Amino acid sequence: MNLPAQLFASDSLLLANFVFAFLLYQAVRRVPWRTALKNTSMMNALIGLMFCTPVFWHLSAGIRPGFNFHLIGSTLFLLMFGWPIALITLTLVMLGTWIYTGMDLITLGLNGLLMLAVPMLFSEGLLRFCRRFLPKNFFVFVLVNGFACAALATMMMIAATSLVLLGLTHYTWPEIQYHYLIPAPILVFAEAFATGAVITAFTVSHPEAVMNFSEKEYLTGK
Question: Residues near 123 by Cβ (< 8 Å), separated by ≥ 6?
């Protein structure tokens, strides 16, 4: 997505930075540092995914500023590491990408809210709903929290981005529809497939690396 600074007023960007900084502060406070650092498999997965994610962020497609598409991984990181670690690590990935590509750092907050916070909050809510009301089954976790959740979270991100573009930029609704919403299903499918495939691979081969997956609850005796 990578919304550029020239589309927005400076006040909007500063406000977004303030809100996103508050979320990052809350994430740092809630990270289970001891549990995470003791889990070698999880740390190895985190480091590996942090190095792989920027590659997919650079493989973006788009024509006009603000109307570009790339895989994000918000739902995947949330399922793997919990929302605090996911938000912190993907923010670091975003920061590195911004510096490498020369994007204005003042847009970190706005892009972070739309690309990271919105899909993560939705994914966290759906994960809690599934834990409470759905049976703890491996296929429920993979298909609902993996494939379906990634697709729905991406739709939420696209909807939020469309509203921001419509309300805070010069783009009109027909332009947003033509340049952003019509190609959007491709991103939804790609994000859902990538998230589902990776989370399936980890839960099958290294379930101990997935913070939000319990081998005892989802696999033992099923």
Answer: 74, 75, 78, 79, 83, 145, 149, 150, 153
